Amino acid sequence: MLNRRLLRIKAFKVLFSTWQDGPAALEPARKELLRSCEKTLDLYYFLLNVCGSLRQVAFDKIEAARNKFHPTEEERNPNMKFVNNRFFAAVEDNAEFQKYCSRKGLLWGDYDIFVRKLFASVTASDYYKEYMESGTDSFKADCAFARRLFEEEFEDNASLEAILEDLSSYWIDDVNYVLNNILYSIDNMIAGRPLILPDVFIKDEDRDFVLKLLEVSLVHYDEYFQLVCNSLDNWDSDRLVSTDATLIVMGIAEAVWFDNIPTKVTINEYVEISKYYSTANSRMFVNGLLDKIIQAKVASGEIVKTGRGLLDGGQRVSKEQ
C-alpha cells in the first residue's frame, strides 16, 4: 500500500524525532517506523468501513418514516437505492475486511453524530439527487456514486480531521494518500475486480528498504551532519534548519547505501518532501546542498551506482530503490 515517497516521509519523521539519541535509539525507532506504516493501512480500513454505518443511518431513517402514524406514499414506498448500494454491500459483506476492522477496533460506533452529519451532507448534494433519480441501476453506477461520495465528502473535512487526530496521531498526514488508494480500489471494482485488501507494503523489499534507510541514516547521522556543516558556504551551521539537515542526511545515506537508486531520484525525492515538511526556501537549499555533496562523493568513488539502465550524469548507476 505504501509507496516509496510515503515510506521516506515516515522514515524522516522517525529520524527527526530520534537522531539525538544516536544508534542506541535504533530498535525503538524501527518499531515506531513499522507502527507508523501499519497505521496507514488501518486508516484505509477505517475510512472504507464508514459505508456500513451510512447504510444503517439511511435504513433507520426509512424505517422511522414507514412507522409514522400517517406515512406518505413516498414514505411507505421509499427509494431504496442508497441502502441497496452494491459497493457498500461489497465492503460490509466482505468477511476478511470486517474481521480486520473488528480486530483493530476500526469501527464508527462512537462517532454516530459525525456519520449522521455526513449522511445529511450526502443527501443534500446534487450528485446524490442525480444518483437516486437515475434510471441506471448497476454495480458500476453504485461504485461511481461511492467514488463521488469519498471525493466530495472526505477531503478537507474538518470534522473528520478532528476524529482522526483523536484516534491516532499518525493519521492526519495520511488522509489524502489513503483517499487516493480508496478511489483506486473503487476504480478497480468498476473494472470488474474484487475489493482490494492491501498489505502494508506493496512489495517485500519495500519493508527492507525503509528499515535500512532509517538504520543507515540514524547510525551515520553525526558523520553526515558534520559533512553538511562542512559543505556550507558563508552560512553558520547554527542557522541550519533542523528539518533541512535531517532531509539532507537521509539523502546522503540513501545515495551512499542504495546502489540501485539513481542519485537524481534521491535528490528529487528529498526536495519534494522538503516542500511539505520544511521552510519556504528549503526546496532550493536541499537541492543545492544535497546535489553538491552527492556529486563530490560520486567523484571520489564513494558513491558508485551499477545497474543496467541506471545511468546518471555519466556514472553507471545500481545499491535499492
Textual characterization of the structure:
The chain is an all-alpha fold and 321 residues long. The protein folds into 2 domains: 37-190, no CATH class; 220-316, NusB-like (N-utilizing Substance Protein B Homolog, Chain A). Helices cover 67% and strands 1% of the residues. It has helices spanning 4-18, 26-48, 50-66, 73-76, 86-92, 95-104, 112-123, 126-133, 139-154, 158-167, 175-190, 204-219, 221-230, 242-257, 263-277, 282-300; strands at 311-312, 315-316. Strands 1-2 form a two-stranded antiparallel ribbon. Strand 1 (311-312) and strand 2 (315-316) form a beta hairpin. Helix 1 (4-18) crosses helix 2, helix 12 (204-219) packs across helix 14 (242-257) and helix 14 packs antiparallel against helix 15 (263-277). The longest helix has 23 residues, at 26-48. The chain is elongated. It starts with a helix and ends in a 5-residue tail after the last strand.
Element-by-element helix/strand order: HHHHHHHHHHHHHHHHEE
Beta-strand proportion: under 5%
- Count of separate DSSP helical elements: 16
Q: Report the major sheet.
A: 2 strands, antiparallel
Provide mean pLDDT, rounded. Answer: 92
The outline comes out as: elongated
Number of domains: 2
Secondary structure category: mainly alpha
Residue share in helices?
A: 55-70%
Low-confidence spans: 311-321
Give the neighbour order of strands across the main sheet.
1-2
Oligomer: single chain
